[in-house]
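Hi P.,

Sorry for the delay on this. The queue was packed all week, but I finally got your sequence through. Input first:
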Amino acid sequence: MAVSDIEEKKNESISFVEEFVKTDLEEGKNGGRIQTRFPPEPNGYLHIGHAKAICMDFGMAEKYGGVCNLRFDDTNPTKEDTEYVDAIQEDIKWLGFKWGNVYYASDYFQNLYDFAIRLIKDGKAYIDEQTSEQIAEQKGTPTQPGVASPFRERPVEENLDLFEKMNRGEIEEGAMVLRAKIDMANPNMHFRDPIIYRVKKVPHHRTGTKWNVYPNYDFAHGQSDYFEGVTHSICTLEFVPHRPLYDFFIDELKGCGFKMNEAEKQTEDYRPRQIEFNRLNLTYAVMSKRKMLALVKEGLVDGWDDPRMPTICGMRRRGYSPESIRNFIKMIGYTKYDALNDYAMLESAVREDLNKKATRVSAVLNPVKCVITNYPEGMKEALDATDNPEDEQSKHHEVEFSRELWIERDDFMEVAPKKFFRLTVGGEVRLKNAYIIRCTGVTKNQDGDVVEIQCEYDPLTRSGMPEANRKVKGTIHWVSCHNCIEAEARLYDRLFSVENPSADERDFHELLNPDSLSVVKCYVEPYLKEFKPMDYLQFQRTGYFTLDKNSTPEKMIFNRTVGLRDSWKGGK
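Then the structure:
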């Protein structure tokens, strides 16, 4: 990035996180260097909450000419898979970010194992044979000190022997753990002899069966930051109580003589600065990977990328743009207080961005036939339509006009109220890009439903003609019956029927919205054959859509991204 670009970005309004980073750089800490990392666990697909962290981690490094690395926290082989590794990389790229290097916590398994051996030899770690329930019970409470394990003073040589047996696969899962010996009376319960290693006899997606013991998050995370020379560890608020333990283990690591990789030449600034911000929570959505996995496995959604899911891949499939997600994250900002963000606010950001880039096309979702009785039979006209009126350089395309058209059933009322400005018997409307028509009658079926509308057109009112200035109060869209494609439109709504399903004590299955997906037959203009999934489209007067990944030339499937109407109460 050019120096001028960096300076321009520095002058923008900044968050409290950035204030810390900026101060550190101005004071020359870390040699004036910034290095961040995004450390996801590859046990599921990223959701929009991760997007907030991505924007911060990569954004800070980009803004100040530093580097952000991607590190996979792959310390639990029972849940991790290369499928998730690939998906995470794809999502980051789609959001518009580039990492400096790709690392894995598993890159440091030997270093971490050696560090654990050193702690055992120094009398700072021991093997505990109690059950997880017993260990949890002995931890105490925030106001009551914990009780020491009966194995806390086990001899060093015995601890070493047992730890090696654990790693050789001679100890069953759950039979033993390695705990750091710190302080069972510490007011911060994370210091009460935390578990740092456990047995997992499951092949790892990168290291295979080499290891039978794996480090816990608190033991691997900070040390990985240290090895890589991370200067700023930016994370969410739940890690605030973990921060002292994060610093403690890094200090121990430094004291044992372990060296950094990239930042070894730095002297006093060896410990990354941890800064915490609030998580992103959305109304009518859950961010729990456990619940999302249940939705996928039970077939309640169409995979991780179901357009109703809050996953990045789901939003991509639905037709959200990466810019709209980044703009939404800018809108909500970074604070020290957890909040529940209105989903409609996200939709407003999507709508604002797509208005600038979406191609306008005609599609009728609830069709009724309209016959122009005074239009010559067999006659066809090619009319001009602008792809995007918001873009002065926009392309144009042709639409075919004929005697028989499909229009939206909601655009007609036989007997209409005073302020209904669409088509009524005896009333006039303009057909977009075409003519003014007047309804002369209707045909009904035996149930009294309108199955055909008869109209007459005024040939002197075609859009663009000098005589076409006659004003009417309504304009409706249409497609030609003889030059259109029958397609499927999937209309998505909120996945959950309650505003905050994460806080609701009922089983989350009970909270699902039964009307979160409606599938309707529709008719679209042939121009849509030229588009592909993730192209941005606006069905005029209806909403924003994109082709689904399962769409074919024989069966086109469109996902509704968002409606045209802005329901966010904070919107314009």
